[in-house]
Amino acid sequence: MPNSNRPLSPFMIGPHYKPQLTSMLSILHRITGVALAAGLVLLTWFLFAVLQGEHAFLMFRDFCDSLIGQVMLFGWLFSFVYHFFNGIRHLAWDLVIGVSLKAAYITGYTVVVLSVIATVAIWVGAK
Amino acid sequence: MQKNSTHWLVTRLTTLPLAALFIYFITQGAYLTTRVRMEFIGWLQKPFVTGAVLVFILCAFWHAQLGMEEVIIDYVPSAKAQKLSLLVNKLVFLILGAACLYATYAISYGKF
Q1: I want to staple B6 with a disulfide (CB 3.0 to 4.6 A). Which of A126, B2, B27, B110 is the partner?
Q2: Which range of residues forms the domain containing residue B63?
Q3: Burial (CB count within 10 angstroms: exposed 0-12, middle 13-18, buried 19+), residue B66
Q4: Residue in B with minimal Cα distance to A118
Q5: pLDDT of A1 over the 60 cut
Q6: Mean pLDDT calculated for residue range B60-88
Protein backbone atom coordinates (compact mmCIF):
# COMPACT_ATOMS: atom_id res chain seq x y z
CA MET A 1 0.00 0.00 0.00
CA PRO A 2 2.59 2.64 0.89
CA ASN A 3 4.00 4.26 -2.22
CA SER A 4 7.72 4.88 -1.61
CA ASN A 5 7.92 7.35 -4.52
CA ARG A 6 5.57 9.72 -2.78
CA PRO A 7 7.40 12.58 -1.02
CA LEU A 8 6.94 12.63 2.77
CA SER A 9 6.01 15.70 4.74
CA PRO A 10 9.19 17.55 5.77
CA PHE A 11 10.88 16.71 2.46
CA MET A 12 8.07 18.46 0.57
CA ILE A 13 9.59 21.75 1.65
CA GLY A 14 12.14 22.83 -0.94
CA PRO A 15 11.45 20.86 -4.10
CA HIS A 16 7.63 21.00 -3.83
CA TYR A 17 6.70 23.73 -1.40
CA LYS A 18 8.22 27.16 -0.93
CA PRO A 19 9.72 27.41 2.57
CA GLN A 20 7.66 29.75 4.76
CA LEU A 21 8.05 30.91 8.35
CA THR A 22 5.05 28.83 9.44
CA SER A 23 6.29 25.58 7.94
CA MET A 24 9.89 26.17 9.03
CA LEU A 25 8.87 26.80 12.65
CA SER A 26 6.63 23.76 12.52
CA ILE A 27 9.42 21.42 11.42
CA LEU A 28 11.80 23.11 13.87
CA HIS A 29 9.36 22.23 16.66
CA ARG A 30 9.71 18.58 15.64
CA ILE A 31 13.48 18.71 15.23
CA THR A 32 13.95 20.33 18.64
CA GLY A 33 11.52 17.79 20.10
CA VAL A 34 13.59 14.89 18.75
CA ALA A 35 16.78 16.59 20.01
CA LEU A 36 15.26 16.98 23.46
CA ALA A 37 14.18 13.34 23.48
CA ALA A 38 17.74 12.31 22.54
CA GLY A 39 19.07 14.62 25.25
CA LEU A 40 17.20 12.58 27.86
CA VAL A 41 19.90 9.93 27.35
CA LEU A 42 22.41 12.56 28.52
CA LEU A 43 20.22 13.30 31.55
CA THR A 44 20.18 9.58 32.38
CA TRP A 45 23.97 9.44 32.11
CA PHE A 46 24.29 12.49 34.36
CA LEU A 47 22.04 11.13 37.12
CA PHE A 48 23.84 7.78 37.16
CA ALA A 49 27.21 9.50 37.14
CA VAL A 50 26.14 11.42 40.24
CA LEU A 51 24.91 8.19 41.81
CA GLN A 52 28.12 6.30 41.02
CA GLY A 53 30.65 8.67 42.53
CA GLU A 54 33.21 11.39 41.96
CA HIS A 55 35.11 9.60 39.20
CA ALA A 56 32.04 8.96 37.02
CA PHE A 57 30.83 12.48 37.74
CA LEU A 58 34.09 14.05 36.59
CA MET A 59 34.04 11.92 33.44
CA PHE A 60 30.61 13.30 32.63
CA ARG A 61 31.73 16.84 33.43
CA ASP A 62 34.79 16.49 31.17
CA PHE A 63 32.53 15.33 28.37
CA CYS A 64 30.29 18.37 28.86
CA ASP A 65 33.32 20.68 28.84
CA SER A 66 34.62 19.20 25.57
CA LEU A 67 33.76 20.91 22.29
CA ILE A 68 31.23 18.24 21.27
CA GLY A 69 29.72 18.37 24.76
CA GLN A 70 29.37 22.15 24.62
CA VAL A 71 27.78 22.00 21.17
CA MET A 72 25.33 19.36 22.42
CA LEU A 73 24.48 21.32 25.56
CA PHE A 74 23.99 24.55 23.62
CA GLY A 75 21.79 22.70 21.11
CA TRP A 76 19.82 21.12 23.93
CA LEU A 77 19.34 24.48 25.65
CA PHE A 78 18.18 26.15 22.44
CA SER A 79 15.89 23.19 21.73
CA PHE A 80 14.35 23.43 25.20
CA VAL A 81 13.85 27.19 25.01
CA TYR A 82 12.42 27.09 21.49
CA HIS A 83 10.20 24.07 22.17
CA PHE A 84 8.99 25.85 25.32
CA PHE A 85 8.02 29.11 23.58
CA ASN A 86 6.65 27.47 20.45
CA GLY A 87 4.86 24.91 22.64
CA ILE A 88 2.97 27.77 24.29
CA ARG A 89 2.04 28.89 20.77
CA HIS A 90 0.72 25.39 20.05
CA LEU A 91 -1.26 25.26 23.31
CA ALA A 92 -2.80 28.64 22.43
CA TRP A 93 -3.82 27.28 19.02
CA ASP A 94 -5.45 24.32 20.80
CA LEU A 95 -7.58 26.90 22.64
CA VAL A 96 -8.31 28.58 19.27
CA ILE A 97 -6.22 31.61 20.21
CA GLY A 98 -4.06 33.26 17.54
CA VAL A 99 -5.07 31.03 14.65
CA SER A 100 -5.31 33.77 12.02
CA LEU A 101 -2.52 34.00 9.44
CA LYS A 102 -1.45 37.39 10.73
CA ALA A 103 -1.34 36.18 14.34
CA ALA A 104 0.62 33.08 13.31
CA TYR A 105 3.29 35.30 11.78
CA ILE A 106 3.42 37.74 14.69
CA THR A 107 3.67 34.96 17.30
CA GLY A 108 6.09 33.09 15.03
CA TYR A 109 8.56 35.97 14.85
CA THR A 110 8.05 36.61 18.58
CA VAL A 111 8.99 32.99 19.36
CA VAL A 112 12.15 33.26 17.25
CA VAL A 113 13.29 36.49 18.91
CA LEU A 114 12.46 35.28 22.44
CA SER A 115 14.19 31.95 21.85
CA VAL A 116 17.43 33.55 20.67
CA ILE A 117 17.49 36.08 23.53
CA ALA A 118 16.59 33.54 26.23
CA THR A 119 19.06 30.93 24.95
CA VAL A 120 21.95 33.39 24.94
CA ALA A 121 20.92 34.87 28.32
CA ILE A 122 20.72 31.47 30.02
CA TRP A 123 23.95 30.26 28.40
CA VAL A 124 25.86 33.38 29.45
CA GLY A 125 24.22 33.31 32.89
CA ALA A 126 25.38 29.73 33.44
CA LYS A 127 29.02 30.52 32.64
CA MET B 1 -2.82 3.26 19.66
CA GLN B 2 -4.43 4.86 22.64
CA LYS B 3 -8.14 5.28 22.99
CA ASN B 4 -9.73 8.31 21.32
CA SER B 5 -8.06 11.54 22.31
CA THR B 6 -5.90 10.23 25.18
CA HIS B 7 -2.67 10.56 23.17
CA TRP B 8 -3.49 14.14 22.24
CA LEU B 9 -4.56 15.08 25.77
CA VAL B 10 -1.60 13.50 27.61
CA THR B 11 0.83 15.17 25.19
CA ARG B 12 -0.64 18.54 26.18
CA LEU B 13 -1.19 17.89 29.89
CA THR B 14 2.42 16.79 30.44
CA THR B 15 3.60 20.14 29.04
CA LEU B 16 2.10 22.09 31.96
CA PRO B 17 4.41 20.74 34.70
CA LEU B 18 7.29 20.68 32.19
CA ALA B 19 6.87 24.37 31.35
CA ALA B 20 6.41 25.39 35.00
CA LEU B 21 9.42 23.37 36.17
CA PHE B 22 11.56 24.61 33.27
CA ILE B 23 11.02 28.16 34.53
CA TYR B 24 11.58 27.03 38.13
CA PHE B 25 14.87 25.25 37.37
CA ILE B 26 16.18 28.17 35.29
CA THR B 27 15.23 30.86 37.81
CA GLN B 28 16.64 28.78 40.69
CA GLY B 29 19.91 28.47 38.76
CA ALA B 30 19.71 24.67 39.03
CA TYR B 31 22.47 24.26 36.43
CA LEU B 32 24.92 26.16 38.64
CA THR B 33 24.88 23.25 41.11
CA THR B 34 25.83 20.71 38.45
CA ARG B 35 29.55 21.62 38.46
CA VAL B 36 30.24 20.05 41.87
CA ARG B 37 28.80 16.62 42.67
CA MET B 38 28.07 17.26 46.36
CA GLU B 39 26.47 20.60 45.54
CA PHE B 40 24.08 18.96 43.10
CA ILE B 41 23.31 16.21 45.63
CA GLY B 42 22.60 18.83 48.28
CA TRP B 43 20.27 20.65 45.92
CA LEU B 44 18.47 17.49 44.80
CA GLN B 45 18.00 16.34 48.41
CA LYS B 46 15.77 19.30 49.26
CA PRO B 47 12.29 17.70 49.50
CA PHE B 48 10.59 20.10 47.08
CA VAL B 49 13.39 19.71 44.53
CA THR B 50 13.26 15.91 44.77
CA GLY B 51 9.53 16.02 44.06
CA ALA B 52 9.96 18.55 41.27
CA VAL B 53 12.68 16.49 39.56
CA LEU B 54 10.60 13.29 39.85
CA VAL B 55 7.58 15.01 38.27
CA PHE B 56 9.81 16.56 35.61
CA ILE B 57 11.34 13.18 34.70
CA LEU B 58 7.95 11.47 34.56
CA CYS B 59 6.46 14.17 32.30
CA ALA B 60 9.58 14.59 30.14
CA PHE B 61 9.95 10.89 29.30
CA TRP B 62 6.21 10.44 28.78
CA HIS B 63 5.97 13.54 26.57
CA ALA B 64 9.08 12.48 24.62
CA GLN B 65 7.70 8.98 24.05
CA LEU B 66 4.38 10.37 22.77
CA GLY B 67 6.13 12.93 20.56
CA MET B 68 8.50 10.37 19.06
CA GLU B 69 5.45 8.16 18.43
CA GLU B 70 3.97 10.87 16.20
CA VAL B 71 7.25 11.27 14.36
CA ILE B 72 7.54 7.51 13.80
CA ILE B 73 3.94 7.23 12.56
CA ASP B 74 4.62 10.04 10.06
CA TYR B 75 8.00 8.90 8.74
CA VAL B 76 8.03 5.11 9.00
CA PRO B 77 5.59 4.05 6.27
CA SER B 78 6.00 0.25 6.36
CA ALA B 79 3.44 -1.20 8.78
CA LYS B 80 5.81 -3.83 10.14
CA ALA B 81 8.72 -1.43 10.69
CA GLN B 82 6.37 1.11 12.21
CA LYS B 83 4.96 -1.38 14.71
CA LEU B 84 8.45 -2.44 15.72
CA SER B 85 9.69 1.16 15.99
CA LEU B 86 6.75 2.08 18.19
CA LEU B 87 7.48 -0.85 20.49
CA VAL B 88 11.21 -0.06 20.72
CA ASN B 89 10.34 3.60 21.32
CA LYS B 90 8.04 2.67 24.20
CA LEU B 91 10.59 0.32 25.76
CA VAL B 92 13.49 2.78 25.49
CA PHE B 93 11.65 5.63 27.18
CA LEU B 94 10.08 3.34 29.77
CA ILE B 95 13.45 1.88 30.76
CA LEU B 96 15.36 5.20 30.69
CA GLY B 97 12.55 7.01 32.50
CA ALA B 98 12.31 4.35 35.21
CA ALA B 99 16.11 4.43 35.55
CA CYS B 100 16.07 8.22 36.01
CA LEU B 101 13.28 8.02 38.59
CA TYR B 102 15.27 5.38 40.47
CA ALA B 103 18.52 7.41 40.29
CA THR B 104 16.77 10.53 41.58
CA TYR B 105 15.20 8.57 44.43
CA ALA B 106 18.50 6.91 45.31
CA ILE B 107 20.47 10.19 45.27
CA SER B 108 17.86 11.99 47.29
CA TYR B 109 17.78 9.26 49.97
CA GLY B 110 21.58 9.04 50.06
CA LYS B 111 21.68 5.47 48.74
CA PHE B 112 25.11 5.70 47.16
Answers
A1: B2
A2: 6-108
A3: buried
A4: B26
A5: no
A6: 96
pLDDT at A2 over 80: no
CATH number for the domain including A89?
1.20.1300.10
pLDDT of residue A102: 97
Contact B112, B103 (CB under 8 A): no
What is the distance, to the nearest Å, from the Cα of residue A115 to the centroid of all Cα atoms in its chain? 10
- B1 Cα to chain A: minimum distance (Å): 20
pLDDT(A3) > 70:
no
Give the domain range for residue A41: 20-126
User: Is B1 a member of any domain?
Assistant: no
- The secondary structure of residue A17, as a DSSP letter, is B
When divided into structural domains, chain A yields a total of 1
Q: How many structural domains are present in chain B? A: 1
